[in-house]
Fold:
Amino acid sequence: MTTSNHRGWAAAGALGGLAGFAGLFAGSNLTANVGDRIRDNALVVEAIAGQRAYVWSTQVVCFVAAALLIVFAAGLRRHLGAQEPAGSLVPGVAAAGVGIVAVLLLVGGGICTELYWALGDPGRWDPDTIAALVEVYNTLPWLWSGAGIAAAAVAVGGFRHGSASRWLAAISALAAVLVLATQAFPAQYGSLFPGAAWVLVAGIGFMTTSRAPAPVG
Structure:
């Protein structure tokens, strides 16, 4: 039999990267007006009270992006597995990297539930608790470090075995370096930008250049 050459998984990756990048960047407006009030948690709560729409939208974005990335991870593993030599670690590492991002999106989106209800009635909540929730809200969904691991795997596979096009392998290598740079300093949430950009480009790349796997069985 032959395996399908459908590329919906790649389209899911492109959409997941776009959703994560655009949606999370928009959701960061929750704390855009905090400014110098960051030094007092009560003032932080005062600045963001009544802006629950950002929190709700971020929760939805996190779920949608995670679902799309899970599909992308599964398809990426299948595609690379059909191109790589038997026993290669590239498919599993690439899929695991994308999967890590999906997990962090689900966990980061999960905190939105508590934050949403807290901002609906801030007078009943300890400002320190709300401020702590905000810090998690502003961090976990942005940790796309796993995308850097996936990009590195795709770069290795592309250069060594041709499992990805040369141009995509080169872009993947660059993305891996950029993500690594965000991990070398206390700015890990910056990995969203190169990480999501790579997922978007990789999804488009595989969608437009992926070739059908060889017949099996």
Remarks:
- The first helix runs from residue 8 to 27.
- The radius of gyration is 19 Å.
- Confidence is low (pLDDT under 50) at residues 211-217.
- The helical segments are 8-27, 41-48, 52-83, 90-120, 127-137, 145-161, 166-183, 192-209.
